[in-house]
Design brief:
The chain is mostly helical. It is built from 10 helices and 5 strands, in the order H-H-E-E-H-H-E-H-E-H-E-H-H-H-H. The longest helix is centred in the middle third of the chain and has 17 residues. It is globular.
């Protein structure tokens, strides 16, 4: 449970240095650090945080760490738009169903047309991938006008155990297909971000034994 959160960090962003930036995060044993909102708080843009202060905060963390990952909701508002417009890479998650593909197609249109984001920055992740599904990868590529899709296999039992127990998926089932798929994807995001062992934080978190 974090003791300090994103809202408080954004309020002091003008005076933030490396030590104070680290103090706002919670650290996983892999070295991965998390900056979040406190559980009892709901972030309200323009009330708690202005978009420009959020961008300034992200830029500070980008200057201090090898990579910064932001988990966003699927709807686009001023806050998420500010993050997306300043992102180097954007991963859009979808599934093999017509409602998911319709929603993803609309989201891609907003990213490209309204926010002016180049398709080269966007990666499509097919979550819960099932090779026996009636909707094939080729169908998704045509529908979304995207290729090079990332497939994360379906493994409901392991994922549920991880979520319900709070134990990382790699500790629940390191050698499963879903763990391997996540590991390959995460390592592709930051292949050059390494520590003294030659591995990035994500590689240590998702590394194979």
């Amino acid at each position: 449970t974090p003791q300090r959160d994103l809202v408080e960090a954004a309020h002091i962003v003008d005076d933030m240095d490396e030590l104070s930036a680290a103090a706002f995060t919670s650290e996983h044993e892999s070295g991965l650090k998390l900056l979040s909102c406190l559980p009892e708080k709901k972030l309200r843009l323009n009330v708690d945080v202005l978009p420009e202060r959020l961008v300034a905060l992200l830029q500070i963390y980008q200057s201090l760490y090898d990579f910064v990952i932001v988990d966003l909701p699927r709807h686009i508002d001023l806050m998420s738009a500010a993050v997306l417009e300043n992102a180097d890479k954007i991963s859009v998650v979808t599934q093999q169903s017509f409602p998911h593909l319709h929603d993803t197609s609309r989201l891609l249109q907003i990213l490209r047309s309204d926010l002016g984001i180049d398709s080269s920055k966007i990666t499509i992740i097919v979550n819960r991938f099932d090779k026996s599904s009636q909707i094939l990868i080729e169908d998704i590529e045509r529908a979304l006008k995207m290729d090079g899709l990332v497939k994360i296999p379906n493994h409901y039992a392991s994922t549920s155990e991880s979520v319900n127990s709070g134990v990382p998926l790699m500790d629940v089932t390191r050698r499963s297909a879903i763990s391997k798929g996540l590991a390959e994807y995460c390592q592709s995001l930051a292949p050059t971000a390494t520590d003294t062992t030659g591995k990035s934080a994500l590689q240590r978190l998702f590394g194979r034994s």
